[in-house]
Every structure is written in structure tokens, then in C-alpha cells.
């Protein structure tokens, strides 16, 4: 057979036939934008051709570059550790906030309801589960998303009146963001546990660890968290499911001042062991507050299609888009593609949960999995190569690369920064999120870890809402 030159566009099944018949060919990895959906293709085309300035430059690209530069310039510095009621205006003893978009008590998943019961008992508002449930059902507890209060929290995300919060200031722009202290492993409220040992640990965080950390931070003038995140990426962390290096780097930076303010050997030993020995995820909450302080600065930029938040409440997944302000776009959460602990399976898993996907909005976590070969098997990824592939794909849906956060394993390319809903819808590539998996029943705790994405529907809904606002 005479050799022929063939260009094959994205139909892999043809390749074998070409090779078997000795047909010279070039295979292009191509697919139509927006999976061939003509309505979405038309929207994307109109956004590109109609929203332009007098020089023909895209108004969206200009706005997105502004958001990229603001996020890149952010300098999150941990300044204080203070009680929630000192950080959140008008907070009362009966105010308790949660992770994710808004949800009613009756619609909450098991772990979220369990955490509310625990938070109510922790605050001394009830002595039993039954009394706590009665308070929730009677409407005596005020609740809503952490994001409404410049806060974030992992998994159930409970923030109540007395809980100590990390206070992070973005020194470039002056805004603040807050997150609770990571509780460590075992039975913890973030997974819905609410027994005596959970409450006891929370009181220790409030009365022992938080005051010591606050004094140490005041003494040292604060800790720049961006510097730690940058270095931790070079040491194999991605700052969502792996925070080993970042946690130790934080402790190293504050250890001298901490040693001076602890009260006795026993207290000092407990604090050191909690931060540096028993809690590999200690830095996760710091990364969340840091990235929240950065993404909040790009809210409400006209024409901007960059995500400012991704968050889950165990029932619904929600996103915010810069130019669309506080409006939530939601759809049912997916269950992670996970590696389960022995004795557990997908049948035990609750749908995805937590505010922690804020770190992916800054390009770390699942977006930077290529920096963290050690996390691959823990989250159920097939290989290190697959982690590299995920990170390369994430660079296709972001505004640009942040060279302040380089990935040594990928020739020091920066993480992809600024998730653009246009690019998500056009390519069909969804943001990759590394996540823990909670048991669907309150109090059981973590049963695995894995990878999850937002539902594509919310990206499409957000793009349509953007088009309805800006296209005439």
C-alpha cells in the first residue's frame, strides 16, 4: 500500500488502523471546546469577541490579569491567635459557623450535625446531645458559612464563640482571614465527633496552646506563611493532604519564642509534641487562612472570571466567582475517588466536605500534586507521572504560573494560579482537589483520602450567569 499522510484529530481509535496499514499519520490531541455544546461555544465566542476595549483587548483577560497579579503579590502573615468572638464582628455565644455554602440544619449531613452538637456542648449551651439538637431545631443557634465571616475551616469547619482562631493579615492589602487550629488525628470535631475527649482537646487548644502561640507570635512579630509554603513545596508538600514539611518549618520558626512563654516542662512538652510530633496536618489550617486572605482581595473585580472560593458542606459544592461577588453556584457534592483505610469502602463515605479547597484556588493542594510524589498513593493516584499530568492540566485552566511557588520536580515551573471558569468550561478540565474522606456517620472520623472535583454544572451555571450580566 502506498504510504499516505494523514492528520488525525482526537479520534484515538483510528490510530491502530493507520499503524496496521503502514499509513503515515500525525495524531493531534484535539476535542471541540465545551465538549461540543453549541450554546456554551456561542457564549465563549461572544465573550471573546464582544467584551473588548477600544484597542480590541479582552476585558476579561485584563481583569483576570489584575486578579492574578493581586494574588501573586499577597503576603499572608500570621499575627495573632485570638478567640473567635474577638475576630468576628457581632458574634454571640449562640453563633456557630460551618464549612461550605449555606445549608439548613435539617439538610446537613451526619458529620456536620454531629459537629454542631459538639460545638454547642463545647460552649456550655447544652449538656446532652438531645439538648443540643433541641436548640438547633428551635432556631436558637445562629449559623451560616464561614466564608461570610472572613473565615475558613476544614471538613465540618466548626467555628464557635470561644474557639481560638489563627489571624492572618495580608500585609500587601491589609485584609484579614481566620481559621481554627487543627485538632490533630483521632476523634475530632472536624469529622463530626463530639464526645468528652473531643471537647477536652478543644478546651486544651483554647486554654493552653492558643495563649502560648499568641504570645510567641507577638514576641516574634508574626510569621510569613507564603515563605513557608514556597519552601515546603520544594520539600514534597502540596499543602492540602501533605503538610509534614510546612508544619515543621512553622515550628522551627516559632520555637524559640514559644520556649520562652510556655509554663513549665509538662506544658512545653505537650505543645511541642502536638505541633511537631503528633500532628502532620498542623499547617493545613494555616495554609487555609493564608490563601483565604489572598483570594479575598480579588472579589468583585468587574469582568473577572477567576474563582475566589470553592467550598463544600457535605451535601452541596459551592463556588464564588470574582465579578459575581458573594453569589453561590451550587450542585450536589461528589464522593472522592479515594483510597480507603482498612475496613472501609465507598459505601461508608460521606460526600466531599470542607472549606479547605480554598488552597486549590491559590494553586496548591491538588493543583500542585506534581510537587508531592509522597502524597500520590495516599490520595489514590496511580503514579507520580499521573500527579505530574494533573498539575500540567491545571496549568491549562489558570490565568498564569506563579513563579513565587515553584515546583522542583517539574523544572521549577510555578503553580497554576487563578482558576478561570472560561477555561474550565472550554477544556472540560475541572480543578483537582486533594481531600480527606469522612465517614457518613457522625463521630467515626476519617476513613480515607482521595481526589475530587467540583461538578461541571456549577462552572457552567457560573459562566451563564456571567454572560447574562455582561453580554448585551
From TrEMBL:
What Gene3D superfamilies does its record include? Answer: conserved protein of unknown function from Enterococcus faecalis V583, Enterococcus faecalis V583 domain, NAD(P)-binding Rossmann-like Domain, v583 domain like
Per its UniProt record, what InterPro entries does this chain match?
Answer: AllG-like, OXTCase_su_AllG_h-dom
Q: What is this protein called?
A: DUF1116 domain-containing protein
Amino acid at each position: 500500500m502506498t504510504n499516505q499522510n494523514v492528520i488525525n484529530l482526537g479520534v484515538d481509535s483510528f490510530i491502530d488502523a493507520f499503524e496496521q496499514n503502514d499509513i503515515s499519520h500525525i495524531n493531534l490531541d484535539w476535542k471541540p471546546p465545551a465538549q461540543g455544546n453549541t450554546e456554551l461555544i456561542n457564549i465563549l465566542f461572544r465573550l471573546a469577541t464582544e467584551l473588548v476595549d477600544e484597542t480590541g483587548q479582552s476585558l476579561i483577560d485584563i481583569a483576570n490579569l489584575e486578579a492574578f497579579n493581586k494574588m501573586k503579590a499577597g503576603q499572608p502573615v500570621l499575627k495573632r491567635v485570638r478567640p473567635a468572638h474577638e475576630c468576628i464582628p457581632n458574634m454571640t455565644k449562640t453563633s456557630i459557623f460551618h464549612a461550605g455554602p449555606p445549608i439548613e440544619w435539617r439538610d446537613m449531613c451526619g458529620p456536620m450535625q454531629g459537629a454542631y452538637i459538639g460545638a454547642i456542648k463545647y460552649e456550655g449551651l447544652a449538656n446532652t446531645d438531645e439538648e443540643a439538637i433541641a436548640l438547633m431545631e428551635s432556631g436558637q443557634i445562629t449559623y451560616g458559612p464561614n466564608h461570610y465571616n472572613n473565615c475558613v475551616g476544614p471538613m465540618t469547619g466548626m467555628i464557635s464563640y470561644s474557639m481560638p482562631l489563627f489571624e492572618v493579615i495580608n500585609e500587601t492589602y491589609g485584609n484579614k482571614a481566620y481559621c481554627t487550629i487543627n485538632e490533630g488525628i483521632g476523634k475530632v470535631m472536624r469529622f463530626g465527633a463530639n464526645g468528652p475527649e473531643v471537647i477536652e482537646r478543644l478546651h486544651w487548644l483554647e486554654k493552653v496552646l492558643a495563649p502560648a502561640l499568641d504570645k510567641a507570635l507577638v514576641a516574634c512579630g508574626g510569621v510569613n506563611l507564603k515563605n513557608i509554603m514556597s519552601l515546603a513545596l520544594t520539600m514534597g508538600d502540596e499543602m492540602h493532604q501533605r503538610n509534614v514539611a510546612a508544619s515543621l518549618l512553622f515550628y522551627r520558626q516559632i520555637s524559640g519564642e514559644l520556649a520562652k512563654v510556655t509554663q513549665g516542662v509538662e506544658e512545653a512538652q505537650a505543645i511541642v509534641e502536638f505541633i511537631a510530633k503528633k500532628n502532620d496536618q498542623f499547617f493545613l489550617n494555616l495554609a487555609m487562612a493564608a490563601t483565604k486572605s489572598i483570594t479575598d482581595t480579588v472579589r468583585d473585580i468587574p469582568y473577572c472570571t477567576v474563582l475566589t472560593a470553592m467550598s463544600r458542606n457535605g451535601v452541596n459544592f459551592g463556588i464564588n466567582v470574582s465579578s459575581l461577588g458573594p453569589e453561590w453556584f451550587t450542585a450536589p457534592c461528589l464522593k472522592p475517588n479515594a483510597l480507603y483505610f482498612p475496613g472501609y469502602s465507598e459505601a461508608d463515605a460521606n460526600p466531599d466536605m470542607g472549606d479547605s479547597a480554598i488552597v486549590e484556588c491559590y494553586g496548591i493542594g491538588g493543583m500542585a500534586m506534581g510537587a508531592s510524589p509522597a502524597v500520590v498513593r495516599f490520595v489514590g493516584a496511580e503514579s507520580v507521572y499521573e500527579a505530574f499530568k494533573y498539575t500540567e492540566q491545571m496549568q491549562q485552566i489558570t490565568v498564569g504560573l506563579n513563579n513565587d511557588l515553584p515546583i522542583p520536580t517539574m523544572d521549577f515551573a510555578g503553580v497554576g494560579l487563578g482558576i478561570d471558569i472560561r477555561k474550565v468550561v472550554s477544556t472540560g478540565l475541572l480543578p483537582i482537589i486533594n481531600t480527606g474522606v469522612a465517614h457518613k456517620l457522625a463521630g467515626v472520623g476519617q476513613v480515607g483520602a482521595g481526589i475530587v472535583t467540583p461538578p461541571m454544572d456549577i462552572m457552567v451555571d457560573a459562566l451563564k450567569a456571567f454572560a447574562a450580566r455582561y453580554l448585551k
